[in-house]
Amino acid sequence: MLTFQVGRIDKMKNSRITAVFFDWDMTLARILGDVPTSQRLAALFQRHGLPYTAAQIESALHQYYLNGGKQSKQQKPQKPSEIIQFYHNLLAHLGQEEIPQNLGRQLYEGYALLPNLLYDDVLPTLTRLHTQGFRLGILSNHSKTARQAMESLVGYLIEPEHIIISEEINLHKPDGRIFHYAAEKIGVPPQECTLIGDNFDVDAIGSVTAGGFAHGFWLDRENENARELPDFVSRVVRLDEVLDYLL
Fold it and tell me: What is the pTM of this model?
């Protein structure tokens, strides 16, 4: 069942969008597929010699949230320093007595090296937009190590120079400068761009209010539907629903 409103589609039909950017993690791909966050973190930690189980990590995450940690994925850390601090805090809740100074950095870089699996609606959607002449890009708050998976999985549809990774340019969403940089790299003004991402504030709203993009899409794959949508922001629950807005 589609979740759009007719008025929003009509408004989109009247706008000129020539470039479509996508967030990466939990938008186009997810680590290890459809598994809980605790299982992803367990795989990451075990890869770096930290033998914690998913159940132990789930309990530590619960304590972390109770003690004032970030409360939802919409508030999750975006910058490397914030993500590294999250790993340190989580390990402390797990009872890790000694945390090497460089361990957080290793975990940050290692996350993207775990298996990335595309959602089933990604390649059909990208292919359709590509054949219709849209310029496609990725705009992701991620480590440099994520580029390998991005180029390997969708590089034949998205040119490498149109893959914008925050750590490579030391700018992070929702800083308006990263949206302007992305538009310049893809060769169109921000007013002809849209961004599709799973983070309501950072992706959907940030691209419009800070970046000057024509429209922002909140990809609500978990079907939360608990947000009031401002102008120029739409909610979809599957990636291919954006085709009804753009084509």
Answer: 0.92
